[in-house]
Amino acid sequence: MATYLEFEKKIEQIQDHLETAHLKKDESTIDSLEKDLEKEVAKSMKGLSDYQKLQLARHPDRPYALDYIRFMMDDAYEIHGDRAFRDDPAILCYLGYIDGQKTMVIGEQKGRGTKHKLKRNFGMPNPEGYRKALRAVRLAEKFNIPVLMLIDTPGAYPGLGAEERGQSEAIAKNLFEFTNIKVPMISVVIGEGGSGGALAIGVADKLAMMRYSVFAVISPEGCAAILWNDPSKVEQAAKALKITPSDLHSHGLIDDILDEPLIGAHRTKEASAQVIKAYFLENIKALKALTIEEMLDQRYERLTSVGAFSE
Questions:
Q1: Are the beta carbons of 75 and 102 closer than 8 angstroms?
Q2: In this structure, how many other beta carbons lie within 10 angstroms of the beta carbon of residue 209?
Q3: For residue 107, which phi and psi values (nearest 5 degrees)?
Q4: DSSP states of 212-251 as a string?
Q5: In this structure, which CATH number among 3.40.190.120, 3.90.226.10, 3.20.20.70, 3.40.50.1970 belongs to the domain 52-304?
Q6: Least buried of 57, 80, 148, 187, by fewest C-beta within 10 Å?
């Protein structure tokens, strides 16, 4: 069954009536309810607070990296392991085709349901996951294959074992190595972009965010705990952190905002996959028109401009 958040309750009621009308094949009622649904979606989804957008980014029905891979890719073949320790299921690496374009897709996978959440470590990669991503990117570079990275994690796993195996070093190495990879790289935040766990696969020629995604240095819950020692101030923290695509775009921290359908990717998974696919193919075409030197210079300038300011 679909899950509805508190501010989606009226949408749920209309959709329930719409399903009943479809069962009865009552065309006049269907037309009327579809218009009502369109109006309610516009009303409910256009005035969302930052915290409500965070809720949508974490929505349990929101498509994850594996969903997008299945919608977008043909002849997809999964790459496993970092060739050093083990395979990390929280990071997916797939080689295949997107509309005939050979592509390497790397994504963070949260898992759906208790069994798969545990398997995927709730989307929190260990260092071997980031090393697997680097191995996949180097493989793509070797065979001149563009890379698409899908960010969706609450953060890198902070466990003792992860720290012992060099979590910070693995993230830092990706940040360093990705700046000089000689193939086009596109990164998209599809849900939750958390701290270094997101940055580790966020260094690219283009960094975009879906309409209802977030990107933050710390979770609002963690921020509220540190600043106020009060979990009830999570909404205040979400607003202060400036985690939404519009805030980040206005500060020049991301390049583009992808307009997933207004009702949300969790209701329109395939349509949202088409949005990402179109963005990827359009930008790959533009990047391929550049020489490797021009592309790397442009990437370096984009990355070094982050945080720049003038008095």
A1: no
A2: 29
A3: -145, 155
A4: T-EEESS-HHHHHHHHTS-GGGHHHHHHHHT-SHHHHHHT
A5: 3.90.226.10
A6: 80
Q: For tokens 């466990």, name the residue.
A: 159
Q: Compute the radius of gyration of the chain from its Cα atoms.
A: 20
Reading phi first (left if > 0) and then psi (alpha if -120 to 50, else beta), residue 203 is in beta
Q: Is 93 exposed, middle or buried (0-12, 13-18, 19+ CB in 10 A)?
A: buried
Q: Which residue has the tokens 């990705």?
A: 178
pLDDT per position in the chain (311 positions), as tens?
Answer: 789 999 999 999 999 999 999 998 888 899 999 999 999 999 999 889 999 999 999 999 999 999 999 999 999 999 999 999 999 999 999 999 999 999 999 999 999 999 999 999 999 999 999 999 999 999 999 999 999 999 999 999 999 999 999 999 999 999 999 999 999 999 999 999 998 999 999 999 999 999 999 999 999 999 999 999 998 899 999 999 999 999 999 999 999 999 999 999 999 999 999 999 999 999 999 999 999 999 999 999 999 988 777 77
Cβ burial, residue 62 (10 Å; 0-12/13-18/19+): buried
How far, in Å, CA of 54 to CA of 47, rounded?
14
Element (H, E) at 140: helix 127-142
Cross-strand pairs, 208? 188, 256
Cβ–Cβ < 8 Å for 201, 187: yes
Instruction: Report yes or no on whether pTM surpasses 0.90.
Output: yes
Separation between Cα atoms, residue 283 and residue 280, nearest integer Å? 5
Give CA–CA dist 104/107, Å, rounded.
10
